[in-house]
Design brief:
Distance between the termini: 54 Å
Strand content: 15-25%
Order of helices and strands: EHEHEHEHHEHEHEHEH
Shape: elongated
Strand order of the largest sheet: 2-1-3-4
Largest sheet: 4 strands, parallel
Length: about 260
């Protein structure tokens, strides 16, 4: 895999820079919380002067409102640890930000982005996937991109774009599949690919951390199954990329406290 490690400047390191609040969904699986903390450690290593905080939408502490309350009326940029647009990005996170005293901006979700595609490629390679060498292998190869799923059409649009970017990167078809809310499922996607003669398949796990959905999707795929995105170094670079984009001086604050 070609290394794609973007360099970040020092603009977010001063004590007056907005805090970076990584907004995780929350999970009952302890591996998820461990993965999020490992990712936070990588972000701090990349930019040691930046205040980095964690807030959850649900299920785990600290909850996002508590994290924002602890910041008082400071500036903060909220980076969703989410891979597409959907209800949490459009409603939950902005509403929690607007209810806080802190002056906030909400960054874009992590996906779609080329760094996600490179992380998916790295995880596939770790699992044993190799690109097709011959024309026969190319015609028989494909990848299923397993994602959580959402009823929001924008989420499917974003996942579909990631699938197309991954297909261009790998040189084989990539079909998005979902663990819930929409179709196709992983099993349905595999059947569709095999009906097209794509017998050499692998599963790319489009999840930020291990959990029930990632496990169920992996169990439905009998061949090569990649690990979730996790705390891969490129994920930390992507978190900082979204922070820097939202820290642009031309981007308005989402919420400013009312004058005293």
């Amino acid at each position: 895999m070609t290394a794609l490690l973007p360099l970040h400047d020092e603009s977010g390191q001063g004590p007056g820079s907005p805090a970076l609040v990584l907004v995780a969904h929350g999970s009952r699986d302890p591996r998820t919380l461990a993965t999020v903390h490992a990712l936070l450690d990588r972000v701090r290593e990349l930019r040691p002067g930046l205040r980095v905080r964690l807030g959850h939408i649900e299920l785990n502490e600290p909850l996002l409102p508590d994290t924002l309350a602890a910041l008082g009326d400071d500036d903060a940029i909220l980076v969703p640890l989410l891979l597409s647009r959907g209800y949490h990005v459009k409603q939950d996170i902005p509403e929690m930000a607007a209810a806080a005293r802190a002056r906030t901006r909400v960054a874009a979700p992590l996906g779609p982005h080329r760094l996600l595609v490179e992380t998916l490629c790295a995880r596939l390679a770790e699992a044993g996937w190799r690109g097709p060498v011959t024309e026969s292998e190319r015609r028989s190869s494909a990848v299923v991109l397993a994602a959580a799923g959402s009823r929001d059409p924008d989420a499917a649009t974003d996942t579909g774009r990631t699938a197309r970017l991954l297909a261009a990167r790998l040189g084989v078809p990539v079909l998005a599949a979902y663990a819930s809310a929409t179709s196709p499922t992983v099993a349905q996607a595999l059947r569709a690919l095999r009906a097209q003669g794509r017998q050499r398949t692998a599963l790319a796990s489009y999840f930020t951390a291990p959990g029930r959905f990632a496990r169920e999707c992996a169990q439905a795929a009998p061949g090569i199954t990649a690990a979730p995105l996790g705390a891969h170094p490129l994920m930390a670079h992507l978190v900082l990329t979204r922070y820097d984009e939202a820290n642009s001086p031309t981007r308005p604050l989402l919420h400013q406290p009312a004058p005293a």
